[in-house]
Structure formats: structure tokens, C-alpha cells
Specification:
It comes from marine sediment metagenome. With 115 residues, the chain is α+β, with helices and mostly antiparallel strands. It contains 3 helices and 3 strands.
Length: 115
Amino acid sequence: MTEMTQRQKYDLKRKLEELKTCKGRHTELISLYIPPNKQIFAVNTYLKNEYSQSQNIKSKTTMKNVISAIESIMSRLKQFKQLPENGVIFFVGHKDNSTNSYNSKSWCSKYFYDK
């Protein structure tokens, strides 16, 4: 497995600290952990199923935000021809700004499975 540099470890730690503070309404924040042995095709199939299921959400705002997050993951997943040897994780969703406004956040790391 590829070793992380000190800078990469620092950046990962900072991002994880930022993620701890994220709050969203309902189910608008999505975490997707993909191990290195998983096929991209299988993950895409899973995401397409979740996409179709999310169209049953009653709240139009929540439904729109969840669909947007799933689409974001699907588009970022297309950038990979194969998964990194350490796997990959995605954190996507609409983050509450505590002023009744929301920001779309997206973060991807390929170092999750690095030991």
C-alpha cells in the first residue's frame, strides 16, 4: 500500500475535524466507504438504486438535496478507471450553516484504508 506523506496525514486530519462539525437536516449528508476490492460497476449499481429510492422522499427539498449528493458521487466516481489500492471514501451533502442557509459540500479521500 502507498504510504501517506506527513502533509497528506495533516490534511486528512483537518478534513476529518471539519466533518465532525457538519450537521445536516434529515438524511442530506451521505458517507460512502468503498473498499479497494469492490468493483466500480457494483458501486454504480448501488448508487442508481439509491437514486431511484430517494425519489420517494416526501420533502421536496430533502429529495432534491439527496439526489444532488448521489449525482455528485456518481460523477466523481467516473473519474476512477479502477479504485485506488487503499479504497476511497466520499462525504457529500448539504451542510447547515446555522443561519438557516445550507452549503453543498463534497469531499473525497483515497487514503481511508491506509494503515
